[in-house]
């Protein structure tokens, strides 16, 4: 690809890190064609962090050499250089590692939107399916910060990480609804975040009796209509101010984004093969 030229209002970023997300693989396979049509050949990727290499006409407030976190809405971040509107980048706090900075947008804003949607109050118990993934690791920490008791649904391999972050681990498998109720201090689950799909919404509404208005799924789209639950995700918090807020929490040591593995840009296929196993803790990241 030729090096992009920043248009009016854009900056050119030399990418240092770009996280990968399961939705990108689904779009590539055509599985989300109705929502996000794909045409090929196509670039890929929304998450990015890097160094400003050029400033387009009309841009104020940034300089060449600034370290930034941002996002692309043109499936173009998995590259050495990407041009994006200047209002889609924010200063990277010095204490935030490149891998984390480059992973914050999709997973972070999705977690933020989902947690906000179920309106957690101190004393609530919220169960989170997919608690140890890219979205889940951020969401469980935001839910703990909101004062909720958080039940993190994941495999046993994640028990220690979840416990260390103030979350009660509950392993998926037979008898899950009973085990969730038993783990909840009040014996009741008040809200449910589904980051995995495959029947968790039904379990939340029909087995646990959670009010549909306090169930959010980011992946089981048919269940949104069937059960009247919420579908708040990335698009609902796709704002650079949210990215900046999350980056600030990371810089302050109040939010951890675990990086499972880092791949070179040339190893993009291996990175997605790993991601599609659906057992990543935190994020997989490409480093050009
Ligand atoms: N709508 C939106 O805006 C939006 C945005 C981002 C992502 N998404 C979607 O949300 C989902 C999660 O994304 P992500 O990036 O967090 O994925 P991810 O990082 O690949 O999630 C992996 C996690 O899923 C857990 N998991 C595996 N099997 C499970 C099961 N049976 N029950 C519960 N958890 C299980 C794994 O835990 P163990 O290793 O312990 O098994 C692992 O920690 C994806 O389907 C993605 O496409 C939607």
Automatic annotation (TrEMBL):
Organism domain of life: Bacteria
Domain Enoyl reductase (ER): 1-286
A Pfam short name: ADH_N
Keyword Transmembrane helix: no
The entry's keywords: NADP, Oxidoreductase
Residue intervals passing through the bilayer: none
A single GO molecular function term of this UniProt record: NADPH binding
InterPro entries per UniProt: ADH-like_N, ER, GroES-like_sf, NAD(P)-bd_dom_sf
Name the record gives this protein: Zn-dependent oxidoreductase
Organism: Mycolicibacterium brisbanense
